[in-house]
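ok trying again, last paste got cut off:
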Amino acid sequence: MAVAKKNQIEVGEAVGIVAAQSIGEPGTQMTMRTFHYAGVAEQVPTGLPRLIELVDARKEPKKPIMDIYLKPEFAKTHEKAKEVAKNIECTTLDKVAYIEEDFEAKTINVTLEPSELEAEGVSAEEVRKKVKGLPGAHAEVKENTIIVKPSTHSLRGMRRLTNRLRGLHIKGVEKITRAIVVRAKDGSHFIRTAGSNLAAIMKNPKVDAEKTYTNDVQEIARVLGIEAARSALVNEIKKVLDMQNLNVDIRHCMLLADAMTAEGEIKSIGRHGLSGEKAGVFARAAFEETVKHLINAATHGEEDRLIGVTENIIVGQTVPVGTGLVKLKMKL
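nice, full thing came through this time. structure:
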């Protein structure tokens, strides 16, 4: 308890500025390297690109990755884990068929490849059903070929339908393009995937939903809520810094994550997020798009209460931080 009390921060300490400096200064020393994840043939951004991705609150990361932990009976052997991985990996139509456009007949010919169907463990009947169920097209089956007639006759419409056919989901979990089995330090096995689909994976009875993790923070917010997303943000920011051997106190990362998730959704740090939504007019104007903020404030008749640091620096007053927070009254 005594240690905790000693570590308490002083009232009036500019924690935001300290956190910004503590993350920003080592951030300038980060390398721009990408990291090759074992087995998953994807170049995963680390260092500065990944940090920017996190604080910008991007819709999805450049390379989403999942670590799927299995229930003990499936995690023991490599074979059992591989079987689960095979069922998870997404199979699209272009993996099991050759698709070509016939512009003269205005049709798209889908030729099934038996060897590929067998390798992926998919029946030809399953594929035919999926193609027939595709809206905006009429499908006819002729031996090993499915002839698809688009409802529109424009070439653009045909190309759009071809692209939809190529990415048509046949088997496995959507968005998971590759799944490999990795041996953990304790001898058990887990699955690492390229692509992420947390909601679908957590429904799988063979998967340990409590341990399964994705590097897509926005998806965690959608599936598990804002508190889980906040924890994931802290972990991801700390992981980026640790990977570069930069010792930054975790409390700075926690403050950053708290600020980004305080409103119940993940907001970026920038003109479209936190900096653009500050209470004071001068604080918003000092960051970016100065004229826009000043004109908007003037047209709406906004008032600046001068409660922040930036506003007071602009008007030349004492900053309400540290010793500037103390106000004395004198009795005469």
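cool. Residues 275-324 form a domain with the DNA polymerase; domain 1 fold (CATH 1.10.150.390). The first helix runs from residue 2 to 6.
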